[in-house]
Amino acid sequence: MKSFSMWSLLALLVFCSAGACHAGTPGPAVQRQDIAVTLEPEGHTLMGQSTITFAAGTRQVALRLSAEASIDSVAVSGKKAPFSFDHGTLLLELLPTGTAESIPVTVSYRATFNDPVSRHPAASEDPSYGVNGAITREGTFLGGGAYWYPVPSQIPARRSISITAPAGTEAVTAGRRLSRETTGAVTRSVWEEARPVGVLSLCAGPYRVEERRVDGIDLYTYFYPDNAALASRYLDAAAKYLNFYSELFGAYPFEKFAVVENFFPTGYGFPSFTLLGGSVIRLPFIIDTSFPHEIAHSWWGNGIDVDPAEGNWSEGLVTYLADYLLKERRSPVEARDYRRQLLIDYASLVTPGAEFPLSAFLSRSDPASRAIGYGKGAMLFHMVRSQIGDRAFFEALRQLCRDHLYGSASWSDFVRAFSRSAGRDLGPFMNQWLVRSGGPGLSLAEVTSRREGKGWRVSGSIVQSAPLFELPVPLALETAGAQVKEVVPVRGERTRFTISSNDPPGRLLLDPGSEVFRILGRGEIPATVNSIKGSSRLIGVITPNCRAGRETFGKLLTSLSQGGATLVNEADLGRKAVEDYDLVFCGAPRDRSLLPQLPEGVELSDSGFSIDAERYGAPDGLLFLVLQFPGASPRVAAVFQPLSDAAAEQYSPKITHYGKYGYLVFSGGANRRKGTAPALDGAAVVGFPP
Ligand SMILES: [Zn+2]
Fold it and tell me: Residue 365 C-alpha to ligand 1 middle, in angstroms?
């Protein structure tokens, strides 16, 4: 990482080229904004005063402020001024100021923020859990969308924020922390931003604060006392990942980095801090999964904002650069399995009716939009990197940082940056994934092998179902000797290929490394929890053996994005439904012909279940098992078998988090077994007789 002084200088240069000096930003120039708020958690209220300093010549001012706020006064250059405030928009006219160089507008206001906070992690795919603003005794979260301070239409060149709260309530927002002190009955901290981006968010709570300075960046943890012992692990990890990404993309773009605990289960990245729920912070894997994901957002999504006109590129990119890239650095097998999982998730979660192009993705709202915006987006970056190589790929990302930091970027900027660094136009390739829904369905056909001279010659076609894409498709020919790899440029409905081999061919595999985005064929997708989440026609069936209450079973289905599913008793289940719908049984059905064949080693009975000779009969056990029906129509059935209503209550909300698994066993308070039966090989593999 570069030293801070050098970085400040660079940042000023960049800021001037991409931020305040950027040509043509409409609206009055805002020189600075000073915000002072006092939090009163008992009454869920905030008392605020903010001075926004406009450049001379500004005549009209429009500020967004919470529609619920009441405004005590507005002053221009220290004198009370008339204003209007309607539907959260504060308007006032400024008179000519003569020789003054700037016009300070001061707004004094108060507002209540008390959005209901859900503590159930399964409640939603929405990372904010529907909370814009909540000031409570337990904690405070004020997101940018709450408009907790008067927000001008243009981002000010500097901002300072002073937060006063009852003694012991520590607050965090964007920028460098200038001071933090407790005197008498209040705790106050002051933050200042010299490189502002976006609308400010604010968090506060009875935090224990730990800090460290690494390579000129202040690192903080703001954790509740229960998690305070985890602080040093998070500070270590923050230093590690900030260093890793600084080397990849260029210096870290903000004044500090803080890890802040939230009182509801978020995983959220803001400019210069990340907000993780307490239950999230305690999960051991988070520190190397969600945490680096949020850190990578410092550059992608926060340092460079998303220009939403062409869709949100940041989730696909950060998924690729964090969740994926860290696996790739551990092992090629983990990398391949991750890419494979993205394709499986897409095929099982995105029903044809739910498809939309990447350019229409803004944020995730359900499993399908996640599979598109995060998963397909990540695969697009992978395909680009495979085609242009690491050097050109990462050079383009560094150039984007140089050109767009503290500003915004669109997909078109990525197309241009990759094309420039690769020295060829990637527009036609990238645009087909950006503006069209879905992806190619690919299969092998007419594959034959014959002897030719001393070796063998394998030929055949890659068949593509509509919509048609143009893409390079890897083939691998397994032989008695070395594996032969070939990349076939696929276009149109049928692309012929020929592969020569010195040794007798064993199997031909289409894209065995999951290098390209495609819609997997039915035989390639294992039946998993995600198959249930992605079902478009599902019935919940209550068997006589169901140990869960109807309401608990309904809540399970809701957590699996199937809240609209019909619930019926097994006796009322018609034959037609059995043929047309995916089914989730609560309890093992009396009529076993309603289920596909159970996998080897799995037994169900009225009193319990067993897997690989291990028997579960105690009341705190629970099985969730997803099975695929044989035949042409792709249907699945799941057995949800809690051994008591208490077990159903306890474990059901967890099931949705195990999306890629085909069976789950819970007992003794935790997940005991999980796994997935392998999919058939489908039309992406052809075997040759020996
Ligand atoms: Zn993200």
Answer: 13
How many Å separate Cα 188 from the centre of its chain?
33
How confident is residue 291, by pLDDT bands cut at 50, 70 and 90? very high
The alpha carbon of 314 and the centre of ligand 1 are apart by a number of angstroms equal to 7
CA–centroid distance, residue 322 to ligand 1 (Å): 10
User: 441-520 architecture in CATH?
Assistant: Sandwich (2.60)
* Alpha-carbon span 237 to 219, nearest angstrom: 10
Taking a C-beta distance cutoff of 8 angstroms, is the pair 661, 529 a contact?
yes
| Interval between CA 335 and ligand 1 midpoint (Å) | 19
Q: What is the pLDDT of residues 255-275, one digit of tens each?
A: 999 999 999 887 788 999 999
Q: What is the pLDDT of residues 489-548, one digit of tens each?
A: 999 999 999 999 999 999 999 999 999 999 998 778 888 998 899 888 999 999 999 999
- In angstroms, the CA 678 to CA 187 distance is 57
Which residue type occupies 49? Q
Distance from the alpha carbon of residue 438 to the mean position of ligand 1, in angstroms: 22
**What's the CA-to-centroid distance between 392 and ligand 1, angstroms?**
24
User: Helix or strand or coil: residue 60?
Assistant: strand
CATH architecture assignment, domain 4-303: Sandwich (2.60)
For the record, the structure tokens of 448 come out as: 């034959």
Sheet of 176-183: strand order equals 79-80, 70-76, 102-112, 45-55, 30-40, 159-166, 186-193, 176-183
Mean pLDDT taken over the chain: 90
Please report which helix (H) or strand (E) contains residue 377, including its range. helix 377-404
- Using alpha carbons, list the distances in angstroms from residue 453 to 31, 448, 503: 78, 16, 12
What distance in angstroms lies between residue 363's CA and the mean position of ligand 1's atoms? 9
Instruction: Report CA(238)–ligand 1 centroid distance (Å).
Output: 16
Class of domain 529-675 (CATH, top level): alpha beta
pLDDT value of position 632: 58
Q: How many CA atoms lie within 13 A of 69 on its CB side?
A: 30
Determine the Cα–Cα distance for residues 586 and 580; give it in Å rounded to an integer.
Answer: 19
Ranges assigned E (strand) in 332-491: 408-409, 441-452, 455-465, 471-479, 484-490
Tell how far the Cα of 294 is from the centroid of ligand 1, in angstroms. 6
State residue 389 phi and psi, 5-degree precision. Answer: 90, 160
Asked if 4-303 and 441-520 have one fold, the answer is yes
Res. 628 pLDDT band, cuts 50 70 90: confident
Backbone phi, psi, residue 173, to 5°: -145, -165
For residue 33, the cross-strand partners are 52, 159
Phi-psi region of 50 (alpha: psi -120 to 50; beta: other; left: phi over 0): beta
Domain boundaries, the chain: 4-303, 306-435, 441-520, 529-675
CB atoms within 10 A of CB 352: 9
Q: Which CATH architecture has domain 306-435?
A: Orthogonal Bundle (1.10)
CA 267, CA 689: separation in Å to the nearest integer? 51
Rounded distance from Cα 272 to ligand 1 centre (Å): 14
Q: What predicted TM-score, i.e. pTM, was given to this entire model?
A: 0.81
- Tell me the mean pLDDT in the region 238-245: 97
Q: How far is the CA of 298 from the centre of ligand 1 (A)?
A: 10
